[in-house]
Amino acid sequence: MTDRQVAVIGLGNMGAAMAETLARAGFAVTGYDPGAGPRARAAAAGIALADSPAAAFAAAPVAVLSLPMARHVEAVLTGDDGLMASGLADRLVIDTTTSEPAVTRRLAAVLADAGHALVDAPVSGGPAGAAAGTLTMMVGGAAADIARAQPVLDALSAKLSLCGDVGAGHVVKLVNNLLCAAHLLTVSEAVRMGVAAGVDAETLIGALNAGSGRAGVSEVNFPRWILSGLFDSGFTMGLMRKDVGLAQTLAGDTGTSMPLLDVAARLWRDSADALGDDEDFNRIAALD
Ligand code: NAD
């Protein structure tokens, strides 16, 4: 076995695109997902499929995880049919899930005791970035483990930020997504004011993006998904509400006071009444 063999566990919007990108880059990819739809899509793209997480870990020394939440990561690593139960040795796990730093650190210690390694590498850039291999990755882990993960990280990303020890990538990702969530609210409110005062929304966003009030949301989300009316980013309200909730938990755990961001978090939580979990996360911009 060589580190050119990679398992991808979780073949949803992000994982399927990552599996295809890795296969295109010359890795031998084995995928696993319990869902019939994701399995069919991966099979159609020529990705070999395993029947369980343990079988996927058995097929490759390196595994990329792209799962909804920390509990799913825990299940594939320490559950009945997961890595720890498999008796396999010396696996490198690259967790791209937007997960919980405390859980990541705990799982990394459990894996290390059994001779495995964990690198957290959550991503920004959506399914399009995963498909093009141009994600931004926020990486946490020991230097030697990151060096081993480097060929896979390079194939998936255009920009790597080394954030510190294991768990640090997940901290940075929660900070990033909390800000993105808040900026969607603040930019939407400010744009509504500008439009009400007589300026066309596209003109306003164009001018704003040349000024100091710009944000990633005004530069990317407004032109691509909101003003276009497409709302097809591939990132859902449910996942963003999860991330905002995790960031609030992190603020609580660290004793951080964030009065403005608490208001933003409440608005995201309350949006569940009007916008279901499967809606595009940019829809929050249209809520009054
Ligand atoms: P998704 O819901 O489309 O995919 C998740 C997949 O995991 C599903 O196919 C599901 O069947 C599978 N899954 C669930 N339990 C599993 C298990 N035990 N073993 C294997 N597979 C299992 O979600 P997504 O949009 O692909 O996001 C994946 C992760 O990436 C999330 O943590 C999300 O927050 C993060 N993320 C998503 C985006 C985006 O734009 N979609 C961007 C950055 C980060």
Automatic annotation (TrEMBL):
The terms under GO molecular function for this entry are: oxidoreductase activity
Give coiled-coil spans as residue ranges.
none
Q: Does the keyword NAD apply?
A: yes
Q: Which Pfam families match?
A: NAD_binding_11, NAD_binding_2
Q: What is this protein called?
A: NAD(P)-dependent oxidoreductase
Among InterPro entries, the record links this protein to:
6-PGluconate_DH-like_C_sf, 6PGD_dom2, 6PGDH_NADP-bd, HIBADH-like_NADP-bd, HIBADH-related, NAD(P)-bd_dom_sf
Keyword annotations: NAD, Oxidoreductase
3-hydroxyisobutyrate dehydrogenase-like NAD-binding domain ranges (all copies)? 167-285
Q: Does the keyword section mention Iron-sulfur? A: no
* Enzyme class (EC, first level): oxidoreductase
Domain 6-phosphogluconate dehydrogenase NADP-binding intervals:
5-161
